Amino acid sequence: DDGVEVAEATVAYPHGVMDRVLPSGKRLPPQFALQYPNDYLFALRETVRGVLQKASASASEIAGIGIDFTACTLLAVDADGKPLCDREAFLDEPLSYALLWKHHGAQEYADRMNRVAEARGEDWLRFIGGKISSESMFPKILQILKEAPSVYAAADRFTEAGDWIVRLLTGRDLHSRNIAGYKAQYVSSDYPSEEYFCAVDVGLRGLVGTKVS
To answer: Which residues on neighbouring strands pair with residue 180, listed in sequence order?
Structure first.
């Protein structure tokens, strides 16, 4: 009633930031920064349980859960929302894991997307500071298309990790307009055009509306 915080809990991700090796021991290239999505679920379970225990509260007293993620943290998931990195076929494929915001392995693809956007005079550039960052969503998706095409083909959806957690908690595939505008060039209620994506790479045809929504 008086606004005093009654309990807090902190849980470290078991795998932390994977910038050297995958859980299997496979070494990662430079500029990679990945996470294991199941770590998010582990931390969510343990922190909620910890807070309830410390507060002597029951689950029925939970009024809401706030989700905070640094964007863009990109996940490739199947039709059921399960991360592709959980499939045996992709255990050793780095780009099937969560690509953390500071994953800079997609820099060359961000450069390509910027060159095409500038050549085409894409108006949305002025709303995002003049260029696409390698920390954005679409350069990471393009990297997956070019360097791990089997992951791209198997992905039913590319989603922000924050949106993924909301989907698991609510059963609804919702998207943060804030994150989409900040890291996916979502301007005036739309993403860049199909023509733009095809000019970047024809393999991106149909991306928006299917694998990105």
So the answer is: none
